[in-house]
Each structure stands twice: as C-alpha cells, then as structure tokens.
Amino acid sequence: MATAAAAGSKRGGARGRKALVAVLDNEANISAGKAAAQAADLSASSAQKKAKRAPARTKAAVAASAVVDDVAELQGMLERLRLEKEKAEEMVRERDEVIRKKEEEIETKEKEQGRLQAELRKVQRAKEFKPTVSLPLVKSLLEKDQDADDKGKKKKGKGKAGPERKKPCPAYVLWLKDQWTEVKEENPEADFKEVSSTLGTKWKALSAEEKQPYEERYRQEKEAYLQVVGQEKREAEAMKLLEEQQMQWTAKELLDQYLKFRQEAEEEGDSKKGKRKNSKKDKDPSKPKQPMSAYFVYSQERRAALVAEKKNVPEIGKITGEEWKNMTEAQKAPYEKVARKQKEEYQKQMEVYKQKKIEEAASLEKEEEEHKKIMKQEALQLLKKKEKADNIIKKTKENRQKKKQENADPNRPKRPASSFLLFSKEARKQLLEERPGINNSSLNALISVKWKELSGEERQAWNAKAAPAMAAYKKEMEEYTKAQSSSD
Questions:
Q1: Basic and acidic residues: which segments have biased composition (predicted)?
Q2: Chain CA centroid to CA 344, Å
Q3: Is 53 exposed, middle or buried (0-12, 13-18, 19+ CB in 10 A)?
C-alpha cells in the first residue's frame, strides 16, 4: 500500500509539474504577446512621432546648411581680406623702399651740390688770384719787335724786308740799273721786252774786266747782308735761350705765389670763400677829373639846403631835376657859365696830362731800348756759355769715340746675328710690303709682337738657323783668346 501510495504520489507530482509548466508557459506567452503588442504600439507611436518630427528636422538641416554656407562665405571673405591686407602691406613696404631710395638720392644730391658749391667757391676764389710776377721782359721785347716788323711789312708790302735786311742785287742787275736809262733814251719806242733783250746781249758781250766793278760791288753788298742776317740770327737764338731761362724762373715764381694763395684761401672761412671782390680798374690819380655840367653845378648848390630839409638822395635828384626843367634860360645862364669855365680848365689840364703821358711813354721806350741792349748782351753771353758747353760735350764724345776706335781690334771676330735678328730681318721685309707707309717705331713694335707670338717649335727653328754661325763664332773666339794670351 505504501508502494502504491508512493507510486500515486509520484504520478501526482509529475502531473503537478506539467500543469505548473503549462501555466508558466501560458503566462510567458501572455507576457510575450503583451510585450509584442507594446512593442508594436511603441513602434507605431515612434513612427508617428518620426512622421511628425520629419519637417522640423528638414528645416533645421536647411538652416544648418545655410549657416555652413554663410560661414564658408565669411571664411572666403576673410581669406580675400587677408590676401588684400598682405598685398597692401607689400605695397606699403615697396612705397617705403621707394621713399627711402628717394631720400638717399636727395641726400646724395645735396652732398654733391655741396661739393660742387665748394668747388665753385674755390674756382671763384682762384679767379681772384692776381700774380705779382710780370711777363719776362725778353718775351715782351720780342713781341714788340715782331709787331713792329709786321707793321713795317704791311706798310711796305708783304714779303718786303727793311732797309737793313735788303737782299743784295746781282752784278747783272746793278749794271742793268746803270744802263737802262741810256738804252731807253736811244730806243724810246722800245718796250720792256726789247730793252731787256738788248741789255742782255750787251751784258754777254762785256769782258771780265768790265764786269769786275759790278761783281765786286755785289760781293761787298752780299757780305754786308750776310753779316747783318747772321748777327740777327745769332741775336734771335740768344734771346730765345734767355727767354727760356726767364720763363723757367717766372714759372717757378708763379707756382710759389699760387701755392701760397691756395694755402691762404683754404685757411679762410667758407663765408669768406663765397664772397667775390669787385675788381675795378685802377684809375690814374694824375688824370684830370671830368668837369660838371650846368645841371650838376646847380644840383651841387641846392644839395646842402635839401639835405637840411632831411631829403634823401632820390628825392633830391627828383626835386633838382624838376626845378632845372622849370628854370628859364636866364636863370640857367650863371650855372652854364661856371660849367664852361670848368670845361676850359679841364681841357687845359688834359693837354698838359697828354703831353706828360707822351714824355713818359718816350722815356719808357728809351729805358726799354737800353734794357733791350743789355738783355741782348746777356743773351749773347749766355749763348757763348752754351756753345762752349756744347763744344766741350762734343769734344768729349769725339774723344771717347776715338779711344773706342783705337782700342778696337780689327782681328776680333764679329758676333753673328741672333735668332731674333734673323727673324726680324725677314719679318721687316714682309711688313714693309704689307704696310708701305709704316714708321720705324711701329715696325719694330710689330716685329717684337710677332716674335712673342711664335710657338716653341717656330722659335726653335730660328734658333737652329742661328746656331751654326754662333758655333763658328765661339770657335773663332776661342782661337782669338788663345792667340791674345800667347801674345801677352
């Protein structure tokens, strides 16, 4: 029974578990259905909510897209502004650079202008240089003589010399002058050609004794002429030599004065350098003053009264001018009388002054003539010294040459031409053919250039041409040296 009860209890327990499982499954299915229903409801509601929210999301997306576009546009504008700013800054830098260069140019020009102004002041100052050294007297005397000769030539005709330098006439011309009148009287209708022909025939017919007086006269005149011309040439040469010596002294003195002047000018201030002195021609204090006109006599008389009235110079001139215009001839007469008297006195003084100047000029000319004679004598003495020195130098050279010739041994072998001399001889012929008018210095220079341009092989060829003669010369020199040593 117990076993049956146990078996029954086991069967009852199994049925209970099954029922419990079924209940649990049913509840699970119910809860799953509910969950599915709820999920469906949720999905439907979410779909509805999504459907409701879709327009709002589209508007937000459009707005966001617009904002993005605006931001992108703003960024583009900012980029463009940045580029424009950089470009503007670059332009500003370029402008500053141009301005800086312009300022440098202006500064350089100002410096250059200052330098030029300083140079200009120096030049202006240099114009004020007035040397106290005078022109060499020899040169001035020579120029005066030349001017006198030129004037004499213009008066007497071009090419004609003065009476002291007149060329002597030949013997035939002297005889012709004596016979011309006589032949012309014998044949009055004969022309110049016929008379000349007749006289020529007569001259040929004269004997040597008849021609002798005219030839002797011609010889004497020729000797006198040659003596005068020789003396003039010698004096001219001597004066030229003295002039050169005096010019050297003058140049040295002038240079010393100029250097001293430059030193004094540099020591002065810039303000003084810019000033220029008005150099007026010095007036002769002994020359009479010009007389005043009638108007100036009246003006001089009225000046004191007008100055007392405190009138200035322009006002005084204007007042006196108007008063003089309004004056009658009778009122002007006293002043014109004074002016005439002053003019007469001035003319007398000028005559005395001119006469004095003429006497001074004559005295100066006389002094110059005497000084000229002294200078000529000094010049001749200087020329004699120079000729003596030249003769000494000439004799010394001749003695040296003579000794050299005496010491020269005719048996000594002559040195042969070198390779350069051989090349030079051939190149000279070629260059003279190519350039017929070339001078000697240019020719030698071209030969030297061509020799330097030769290659080593070409120069070796010329050395080979000169080698046999040089070898023979050395051999001859050895024999000559041995012979000289054995003779000694």
A1: 141-152, 387-412
A2: 58
A3: exposed
Tokens 């002058």 locate to 177
CA 38 to chain centre: 118
pLDDT digits (tens, 9 = 90+) for 33-76: 555 555 555 555 555 555 555 555 577 777 778 888 888 888 88
Contact present, 447 and 424 (Cβ < 8 Å) = yes
User: Residue 170 gets which letter from DSSP?
Assistant: P
Q: What is the pLDDT of residues 71-109, one digit of tens each?
A: 888 888 888 888 888 888 888 888 888 888 888 889 888
Instruction: Name which of 165, 179, 314 is nearest 226 in CA terms.
Output: 165
Q: How far is CA 194 from the centre of its chain?
A: 68
Structure tokens at 87: 């470009």
pLDDT digits (tens, 9 = 90+) for 322-349: 888 888 888 888 888 888 888 889 898 8
Residue ranges in 408-455 assigned as alpha helix (H): 419-434, 440-453
Place of tokens 């040195």: 415
Q: Residue 471 has which token pair?
A: 């070898």
Amino acid at 18: K
Question: What is the distance between the alpha carbons of residues 141 and 369, in angstroms, rounded to a whole number?
Answer: 9
The gap from C-alpha 257 to its chain's centroid, in whole angstroms, comes to: 25
3-state SS, residue 46: helix
